[in-house]
Amino acid sequence: MLLRPSLMKNSPVTNKCITLNRTLIMLFIYFILYNIFRTYYMPPKVYDLPSVSFIFFSDPNLLDMIIVTGGCFYIHSVASRFYALNDAWRHLPLGLVEIPGEWTKSEITMSLECLRLLHADLCKIIKVFSLGYGMIMLGYFTFSFVGLLMYTYLYFAVGYKDISDTSFASIIPWCLPLIVRYCQYCIFYMSIVVNASYTNEKKREIISYLRACRISSLAIHTKLQMSEFKSNEISAYGIFNINLHLVISNLILLFYGLITLIQMKDGPFISSLTKAVMKHFTQQYNDIENNTNS
């Protein structure tokens, strides 16, 4: 069953895809330039597998970039298809009322059936994404949040290096890894959330069109087709929905986590964990200083 040619208009989504591709290209260029700059000013002593792995999987993390760009590209492509679906709905007669010589009741019902099937297929794609790639997104959100929480706690609540010189030139290099991590986390996190929210908005748009119609004046077959529309949101393996509400929840959890860690700083578990993490970062920091000074 095919849509009428009048519904199959070219949707202006090409420019959005071009903008997304340019953003991804700029992101990878930033990753390459950042690593070239860091390798030039802080070259490792030996170019072996561990040192090369550290370059590619430290901040900015290559694995995070692959996860985020792949997820954003997939989510945005689904949003573009929902946009085209909503554009086709806008070309239906106003109120889904029969127009003599242009639209008959059977044509309206058949068009609704096509749109419903397309909408159901896209919702099924979202469900598959949430169950498949959503597990990866859940791991990314969890581990990146825990890493950001530990970084912030070690920098501002404990501090793994005593700074004798408190000038601006000495503070900035010390805080640079935390600044880079916060910038990367905000950009990647908001890229996923904004694209997912845009997709959910376009998915619910056709539902709002249905609610705006006067159902009592429609044919019985049209009413049956309208009752078959379903909706579900993008989620991280069904644990939580990925939308703008997640930003507020993340900020609240970050503040609560920092306050809890500071209050339990002298506890045996937090104290031993902090010492182990500080030992690792101190050794890593000293290796970077030795490589820079040599």
From TrEMBL:
The chain crosses the membrane at residues 20-42, 62-84, 128-151, 171-194, 242-262. GO terms for cellular component: plasma membrane. The keyword Membrane applies. Keywords: Cell membrane, Membrane, Receptor, Transducer, Transmembrane, Transmembrane helix. It is found in: Cell membrane. It is a multi-pass membrane protein. Gustatory receptor which mediates acceptance or avoidance behavior, depending on its substrates. Belongs to the insect chemoreceptor superfamily. Gustatory receptor (GR) family. This is Gustatory receptor. It comes from Aphis gossypii.
